Amino acid sequence: MTPHRIVMLAASLAAGILVAAPARAERLVTSLSSHRVLITSNFTGEQLILFGSVERDAATVPRKTGYDIVVTVTGPRQTLVTRRKDRMLGIWVNVESRVFVDVPSYLAVLSTKPVDQITNEDVRRRLQIGLAHTLLPQQLGIDLADVNRDDPLRAAYLRLQNRHRLYVEEPNGVTFLTPTLYRTSIPLPAVTPVGTYEVDVKLFADGAMIARTASAFEITKVGFEQFVANAARDHGLLYGLATAMMALMTGWLASVVFRKD
Amino acid sequence: MTPLQIYLPIADLPVNIFLVLGMGIAVGFISGMFGIGGGFLMTPLLIFIGVSPAVAVASVSSHIAASSFSGAISYWRRRGIDLALALMLLLGGILGTSAGVWLFTLLRSLGQLDLTIGLSYVLLLGIVGGLMIVESMRATMRAREGKPVELRRPGSHTWFHGLPFKLRFKQSRIYVSAFPVWGIGFIIGFIGAVMGIGGGFLLVPMLIYLLRVPTNVVIGTSMVVTLVTMASATVLHAVTNHLVDALLALILMVGGVTGAQFGARAGQNMPGERIRLMLGLLVLAVGLRFALELMLRPDDIFSVRPLEQGL
């Protein structure tokens, strides 16, 4: 329900602005191809399509440079450890580690062009646009803070998440089909965790954000996958006994099937 | 999108069903032939295809239970099991497992659990594999020189033959104190809990060289011990960590029991010293692989893992 509230909030804010401002600002409308991604036994990842349009009317000021869109998709938060190995006494051991606290398990930044060409660094930092400017809280001693962008552990974290296609940045991921109609696809790899994903769409013109809207979708297991996952979580003992029984049955069946005499 | 892919509900990733089935058959064949669980082979294989180590260890235990049960049934028909010996080994095993779980928790709280496990694999597999190769080569040479293969030397008593509380194990035709039997069970249970393996590859040589159990009874007996420990490990893992992937386990099992049947037949038709030589080579090879992994520069010196609870 939160995303709807955000939409309503954004709408009322926009309404407030339009009373004060002489010219009407643009409004963003967006729609996802699905709000529920189902993990079934043949799930190998999915592409969600996001459509939207920039609503204008006769009173809207004309923009010289055209529009830019940045779509940020944030998956459920999780806590991860990044470790670095080094050689000690001839063998490779973990020598340094850092805990990344409540960071997005999935993060996609899709835009009409590279984010550094859309707006300046100040705005990017303030609005957390792009992987480089997304806040990644880390445990540093007793403090919880993000570090310099060039920090080796932070860079390695981003690189590894990117290799698993969990953190993606697509500078040409959003396309304008008409001057006001845009489209993008959100690539969800097979290993995407279940949970709620927030979609944040920002509209830029002349380097400034002029409209923003939010949506969300959910990834859930269904059918057999859901049954097994729930059984394992809620009825551990029964599940374990059933698995052990299954093992014995399989073993016994095989010895009957393959019996020679 | 291909029908070959199947999504694993607990491991949370899709795998190629025929690849996993093939791995099950291959490891099952080896386990049936040598009377080992094959956990020390299957766990690294699963981690290699992307399953998280915790899910791999937990799910492999039920696969090993299935393989060893089907193997145990065929050895039972051939009267190749010493149930009394298996029971005594399991008594020591329970204590060893408890001690092992305690050490596992301690090591995890100290960090560097991966390193400890890696080093113990190298040391243990290297030593056991090396010893088995040397011994079986000697036995082969003795057989070539025309001398009878002396597996059981009645005169060669070791210190523990003098221990009290002696028991007679009819099936194995041995008469030993219960203490070394419990001791071996304890060590197997302890190492199994710490390293996440069934311990069959340790139990088989220990029974042969320390207790002088005949080879034809060793494998069946070891399978019974492995069956009980791994079936209880499955239940324990399911209750404590909720990480047993039943679907992954089922695919592995179906492959495993099929492979184990053929493996057991292949093993029956082979002379004992050759089986021991092959097992020795296999164990040594896996040990070397772990050694290389520790010594060679990794592909990536960085790694990202979920934070483990309790750290």
Structural notes for this entry:
The complex is a heterodimer of chains A (261) and B (311). Chain A is α+β, with helices and mostly antiparallel strands and 261 residues long. Chain A has helices at residues 2-20, 115-118, 121-127, 152-163, 223-234, 236-257, and strands at residues 27-32, 36-39, 46-55, 68-74, 77-88, 91-104, 107-111, 138-140, 143-145, 167-170, 174-176, 181-188, 195-205, 208-221. In chain A, strands 2-14-13-4-7-10 form a six-stranded mixed beta sheet. A four-stranded antiparallel beta sheet of chain A has the order 1-3-12-11, with no helix packed on it. In chain A, strands 5-6 form a two-stranded antiparallel ribbon. The radius of gyration of chain A is 24 Å and the shape is globular. Residues 15-22 of chain A have low confidence and may be disordered. Chain B has 311 residues and is mostly helical. Chain B has helices at residues 17-34, 39-48, 53-77, 83-110, 113-144, 178-195, 200-209, 215-240, 246-268, 272-295; strands at residues 5-8, 13-16, 166-169, 174-177, 302-306. A two-stranded antiparallel ribbon of chain B has the order 1-2. A two-stranded antiparallel ribbon of chain B has the order 3-4. In chain B, helix 1 (17-34) crosses helix 3 and helix 3 runs antiparallel to helix 8. The model of chain B has no long low-confidence stretch (mean pLDDT 81). At the A-B interface, strand 5, strand 6, helix 4, helix 5 and helix 6 of A face strand 1, helix 3, helix 5, helix 8 and helix 9 of B.
